[in-house]
Amino acid sequence: MSFLTDCLPSNAHGQVIPAKEQTYNVVIMMHGLGDSEQSFAQAARNIPLPNTSYISLRGVYRLPLDFGTPEGNWMWGEDVHFDMKGDLESEADFSKCLSVLRELIRRIVDRGILSTRIFFFSFGQGGMAALYCVSQLASTYQFGGVFSFGGKLPLAMTLPSSPFPISVYLFEKRKNSSLDDYEESRLKRTFRSVQRICWNRDEKTDMPSSPREWYVFIETISKKLYVHNRLYEDAIQLS
After folding, report:
1. What DSSP assignment string belongs to the chain?
2. Whole-angstrom Cα distance, residue 198 to residue 85?
3. Mean pLDDT score of the chain, rounded to an integer?
4. Closest residue by Cα to residue 171 from 141, 193, 151
5. Residues 180, 146: contact at Cβ < 8 Å?
6. Residue 71, class by beta-carbon neighbours within 10 Å (0-12 exposed, 13-18 middle, 19+ buried)?
C-alpha cells in the first residue's frame, strides 16, 4: 500500500495509483462535474510517469442528479446552479474542497514530498476548483503547476495584489472554447506563468482524445518532473 493512501483525510475519497519506483512527484487529479474518481484513476494507469504517483480524488459532494453511473455523480462545490441554457454551472462554493486539499497537502508534505513536486490535473469544474484552491494555498505552498482542461477561475473570487509564482497550463479544444480573453487576464493576474494549449478541434471535450494530444500533455509535465538518477544521490529534473 502506498504511503499516500494514509495521507487522504477522513472526509476525502479517492484512489492512489502509486509509482513503480520511489515517489518524488504527486499528481492530484480532480474530475469534472458529475463524474467520479474512477475515470481519472484509469487515465493515471494509462500514463505512468517516472517517480510519479497519482491521487484521483472524488468530488466532495454528491450531485443531486442521477446519471445512472455505478460510482455515482459528484461535484466539488456545495451548491448547484443552472445557466440560461439549462446547463449546469461550474461556479460554486469550494470551501469544503479547499479544506480537504489543505489537509491532504499538509500530510503529503509531512511525508517528505516537496510542495514544488505536487501538481494538479483537473477538468471542468475540477479545474475551476483546483485553480481556486491553489490560489488560496499559494501563500503557504509553491506548487509544481496546474494542468487544467477547460477550467477557469471563479468570477466571484478576489484576485491577489500580485501573481503567485506558480505555472498554469490551460488546455482547450479550440481557442476561447472554455475561457475568453478576460478570464485569461484574470488568471495572469493570479499566476505568474499562464500558457494556453489548443487542440484545434470542435468535437469532444477539452480533455486529450488522441495519442498525439496525450503526448503534448506528457511532454509538458515531464519538463517539470523530478526523477531519481541512480548515479547520483539527489533527484534531478527530467529534461
Report:
1. --GGGGGS-TT--EEEE--SS---EEEEEE--TTB-HHHHHHHHHHS--TTEEEEEEPPSEE-SS----TT--EESSS---B-TTSPBP-----HHHHHHHHHHHHHHHHTT--GGGEEEEEETHHHHHHHHHHHHHTTT---SEEEEES----TTSPPPSS-EEEEEEEEESSTTSS--HHHHHHHHHHEEEEEEEE----SS-SS--SHHHHHHHHHHHHTT-EEE-TTSSSEEE--
2. 25
3. 89
4. 151
5. no
6. exposed
232: confidence class by pLDDT, cuts 50, 70, 90: very low
- Take residue 65 and report the three cell numbers written for it: 442528479
- Residue 194: is its pLDDT beyond 90? yes
What's the grid cell of residue 201? 478541434
13-33, pLDDT tens digit by residue?
999 999 999 999 999 999 999
User: C-alpha grid cell for residue 31?
Assistant: 474530475
Classify strands 191-198 and 164-172 as parallel, antiparallel or unpaired.
Answer: parallel
pLDDT at 72: 86
- Per-residue pLDDT tens digits for 149-191: 999 999 889 999 999 999 999 999 988 778 889 999 999 999 9
Domains present along the chain, CATH in parentheses: 3-237 (3.40.50.1820)
**Pick from 131, 111, 110, 112: nearest CA to 28:** 131
Nine-digit cell string for 71 = 460510482
